[in-house]
């Protein structure tokens, strides 16, 4: 999409100041993948000793870069690693052309950096079904390698944007036994967001030392509470990739450390929320809290049913406290529910209880909650102790406008 979009009203005031993570350097360039003069490729190169973990889309039509990354995970860390990402073209549904493009790019990065090709990971985001002009990317790799800088993470964040209206970054600093560990991450995502592993493209870097298998397990676990709890439009991308790289440059072993896990979760949740706040056409950030489920899994099913309902999302866009649409979404989810035990609140306003509108509810109170830019919908199912929280945004006319001419 060539034309620029207005920055989301839910965007942070500015890109955050991210700490330097020792052991990784970044560069970005304009390769002309889809548009001339637009920064659209980034390279990250990690030092020897870096452990790499990743979680990827479960789409049955996932892209060639995703398949390649999945095959490479778990390899030895002695040689370091590199990640190259392009925007403008997803290199998905491109058959053998997609595999050729991945091979050409990884070979070129390996030659420029001195890394083995099996330690070069790639990702592509953008239009599906068009061959990737990988020659344009390959032509920029020497330039990227020469420009690598440990302070250039923001430029990398901007290079991976597509319909994003702002670059996304987050960080945390963690103290362990008197020593400091840094975590910094970037993400892209705005539309085609429905969690089925993580979200669009996310890259997180830390100078902690963590064994690869432990890092992989930790990433997957936290992903279920963060990126797997967001949705914009119920569509899962062919290219979703989340990678976590632990360079070990701090010398601090964080394997199994609770403080490190907490810091990592803060970064992941921050980035996940930013993706929702940049939902295509979004004007409202919505948190859905579900309690009283027969299980946590059931509570999450209900939460996502509400979050993905076009009728719920359009009512929110129109600032209409139509709690009947929440009831509808719960009823269709397929998870356990009992109409006569159900309670619904908008913010702190109790709207419905025990299968009927609350006796004290006044429409103007619900309407006032819907006028807020950040809205909380609370549902208590009254069945057990299961609970879940998911995050979404409203669905506006702008979403249609963006996607109706996405390829134009």
UniProtKB/TrEMBL annotation:
InterPro entries: Arg_biosynth_ArgJ, ArgJ-like_dom_sf, ArgJ_beta_C. It is found in: Cytoplasm. The record marks 125-126 as: Involved in the stabilization of negative charge on the oxyanion by the formation of the oxyanion hole. The active site is at residue 199. Keywords: Acyltransferase, Amino-acid biosynthesis, Arginine biosynthesis, Autocatalytic cleavage, Cytoplasm, Multifunctional enzyme, Transferase. The keyword Cytoplasm applies. The keyword Chloroplast does not apply. Heterotetramer of two alpha and two beta chains. Belongs to the ArgJ family. This is Arginine biosynthesis bifunctional protein ArgJ. It comes from Leisingera caerulea (Phaeobacter caeruleus). The gene is argJ.
